[in-house]
Amino acid sequence: MPGQGGTFRVLQEFLDQEVLIKLKGGRMLAGTLEAYDGHLNILLKNAREVSSEPSKTRNLGTVLVRGDNVIVVSPIF
Asked: How much is the pTM?
């Protein structure tokens, strides 16, 4: 796919860093980017589901996010 090379270069820079992932359906996950593949499947460790209400944040541990659900991946500064 056109432009995918740039996506993977950016993800490479995010490895072992905290990222925020926006998913289809409006859910958001935060955690440490452990790995990813050519389908944009993402492995997060110390993942948590993030809500606008801090009391609704859920710790998830290690999760595999299926790439076709990913809308945006952003570093957390």
From this structure: 0.85
